[in-house]
Design goal:
Blueprint lengths: L21 E5 L4 H12 L3 E6 L4 H5 L3 E5 L5 H10 L3 E6 L17 H17 L3 E8 L29 H25 L5 E5 L15 H14 L3 H4 L1 H8 L8 E6 L4 E6 L9 H15 L6
Parallel strand pairs: 1-2, 1-4, 2-3, 4-5, 5-6, 6-7
Antiparallel strand pairs: 7-8
Helix pairs in contact: 3-4, 4-5, 4-9, 5-9
């Protein structure tokens, strides 16, 4: 049994026994995804590593298997969903961070297409095989959307063709879209009487290379220096995600993250999302646009 998160000492040793459970994790190539997979596998879970690095399965252990998945291609997402059997939990973790402007195979801006729309399409096509929960990984960066210098979320423009692009703006908006998706999914699941729950988690500042792809040397060096100074090791930062995926007292619609240093460091605790994340009109617009862009309709 997991300890109450109020104890603020929830570590990997407190993960409930996961024997008999199957967890699909996107972005398990390395960093937070690999760390989350290791935590859950060590607790007995069978983990499916939805990524493009099959060799990783051997590193996680015999309880792991791989599923070829490229979130930048809706065709790949469809094929992966078709190849996947029943799962207890899906952890939608994969993503890009602060990358130069580019488009996915389907014409979506990279942050929007990979971080948000790819996951929306994947979960939608797996929903009838998910028995327990969906965990959508977001970031405190979502709170910047709408502030001076950062544009508003525009779900109708996934290719960023009608506005000026910046890598930071793209990342922040995708992370808000993630949180809106998780919250609207929970609302719809509850209304349908489903026992499946949708939750979200943010890892704080993790000492990984996630932000080392800006294409600018000094930007990447600045990211690395910040990670070393502020970030937590991946195995610690992954605890909030692991908590959301495994703890017994997680509630549908919950949002979890580190409990100290403005949510950047610490151990799992309930977190408070930005105001936009619970804007029902924006949740609806984000959902309707995602269905339109991906062609995936949820049967709830």
């Amino acid at each position: 049994m997991a300890r109450s998160i109020g104890a603020k000492d929830w570590l990997s040793a407190h993960i409930p026994d996961q024997t008999g459970r199957t967890v699909l994790i996107t972005g398990a190539n390395g960093g937070l995804g690999a760390a989350t997979a290791r935590h859950l596998a060590a607790a007995g879970a069978r983990v499916i590593l939805a990524c493009r690095r099959p060799a990783l399965a051997a590193e996680i252990g015999s309880a792991a298997q791989t599923l070829n998945l490229d979130l930048a291609s809706l065709d790949s997402v469809k094929a992966a969903a078709a190849a996947c059997g029943p799962v207890d939990t899906v952890v939608a973790l994969a993503g890009v961070c602060h990358v130069p402007y580019g488009l996915t195979a389907d014409g979506f801006e990279l942050h929007t297409g990979i971080n948000h729309l790819g996951h929306f399409a994947l979960v939608g096509q797996l929903l009838d095989r998910i028995t327990d929960r969906v965990v959508v990984v977001t970031s405190r960066a979502h709170e910047f959307v709408g502030r001076p210098g950062i544009g508003k979320l525009m779900p109708a423009d996934p290719g960023w063709r009608t506005r000026r692009y910046s890598a930071f703006d793209g990342y922040c908006q995708a992370k808000l879209a993630n949180l809106l998706f998780a919250n609207e999914l929970q609302r719809r699941l509850k209304a349908a009487g489903s026992t499946v729950k949708s939750v979200s988690a943010q890892p704080g500042w993790a000492d990984t290379d996630a932000g080392m792809h800006s294409g600018r040397k000094w930007g990447d060096l600045s990211w690395r220096a910040s990670c070393r100074a502020i970030g937590q090791p991946a195995d610690v930062a992954a605890l909030s995600i692991t908590y959301a995926a495994a703890a017994d007292d997680v509630v549908g619609g919950g949002y979890y993250g580190p409990d100290r240093f403005f949510g950047m460091r610490g151990l799992p605790a309930p977190a408070k999302a930005g105001r936009a994340a619970t804007d029902q009109a924006l949740m609806t617009a984000n959902w309707v646009a995602a269905e339109h862009h991906t062609g995936v309709r949820y049967d709830i």
